[in-house]
Amino acid sequence: MKALIVGATGLIGQQVLEILQNDVEIEKIVSLNRSKDAVEGKVTYQKIDFDQLLEIKLTEDFDFAFCCLGTTIKIAKTKENFKKVDYQYVVNFAEFSKKSGVKSFSVISAMGADAKSSIFYNKVKGEMETALQKVGIRGLLILRPSLLLGNRKEFRFGEKIGEFFMMLIKPILIGSWRHYAAVKSKFVAQTMVHATKKHPFGTRIFSSAEFKLYTELYRL
What we know:
- Strand 1, helix 1 and strand 2 form a beta-alpha-beta unit.
- By secondary structure, this protein is of the alpha/beta class.
- Helix 3 packs parallel to helix 4.
């Protein structure tokens, strides 16, 4: 089996790529990126211009696609640039994946994603989810983590404050509030790979409350 991935340098993407590399069922991985062309083991890194993604043609078909793209307003500088990455690039990658034969597509979204939200971030994520469901890939997995716990390359002061706050309120996050609980990035990555392979039909949505349970259920 063969897999496509974008966003392999981010917190989740790095872990997804590592899981794929160690998966004996995956014989080839193509990582589309902005920085390098290289072949390392069964991973082929292909440098691309994401604005020209739909013009790229691969010479072979793929089974799975993993979309770990995402930025922040601080990095993007403007709402327009943020939406280009978190909406347009994601949707373009889904369309590209479908043309490349992909039957099962997974994407990192966010807790609170809602196309009708008055919050810009949640609205963009919700619009992205709606657009992906119209692409027509046989299997669509949407992951909606809350605050992610893990070691990022860049320091994010706001997230560190969020982690501390989440630890304080964790005991009271029960019932429907459990969906707001912070989640370890490794649980999200493990769920992303396993569920994409195991459930290749229809649309499935995972929230923060479900990632650890899923990994325990399948002993990942």
